[in-house]
Specification:
Layout (H helix, E strand, L loop, with lengths): L2 H4 L5 E5 L4 H16 L3 H14 L3 E3 L2 E2 L2 E4 L6 E11 L9 E10 L3 H16 L1 H9 L3 H9 L1 H4 L2
Parallel strand pairs: 1-5, 3-6, 4-6
Antiparallel strand pairs: 2-3, 5-6
Helix pairs in contact: 2-3
């Protein structure tokens, strides 16, 4: 599974301005709703429900919020780099600035887990995180996310 199958160019957002985790979740839900045809409130509530189980930060300023949704046809993603890091209740107590939202159909357990694993492996690489943080726009970030090194993660 490559991130290219999960992520379209218009689902990569450069320097989003939010001031809180709640505002971030609202923005992610709005961005995802536009791309997958699921109501924004449905996505937002699913994300909040998942966060209640534990923050989806994976450390080093990265979070991978995720949820499974009824009526969603394919696993899909939205990547956001924040203009300023925010508090995310991360276990490592580091603010978050790189967010990869993953949404999956309710029945897509294996596919959902593969997408989470691939994304997590990619963002564990310090050189990749620093490259994304240094990107000069959404186009550059999209290329980084979908190029061969990302596919091999």
């Amino acid at each position: 599974m490559s991130l290219e199958t999960l992520l379209s160019r218009d689902a990569v957002i450069f320097d989003l301005k939010v001031s809180s985790k709640k505002q971030l979740m609202q923005e992610l839900a709005a961005l995802a709703a536009d791309r997958c045809g699921i109501e924004q409130d449905t996505i937002y509530n699913a994300l909040l429900e998942r966060e209640r189980l534990g923050a989806t930060s994976v450390g080093d300023g990265v979070a991978i919020p995720h949820a499974r949704l009824p009526n969603l046809e394919n696993v899909s993603g939205v990547f956001v780099r924040l203009a300023q890091p925010i508090d995310y209740d991360a276990a490592d107590e580091q603010p978050v600035d790189l967010i990869f939202l993953l949404l999956a159909p309710e029945a897509a357990n294996a596919e959902h887990l593969r997408a989470l694993a691939k994304t997590s492996r990619l963002f564990r690489k310090e050189n990749f995180r620093e490259s994304i943080r240094g990107a000069d726009g959404a186009d550059a970030m999209y290329v980084m996310l979908t190029e061969p090194q990302a596919k091999a993660a």
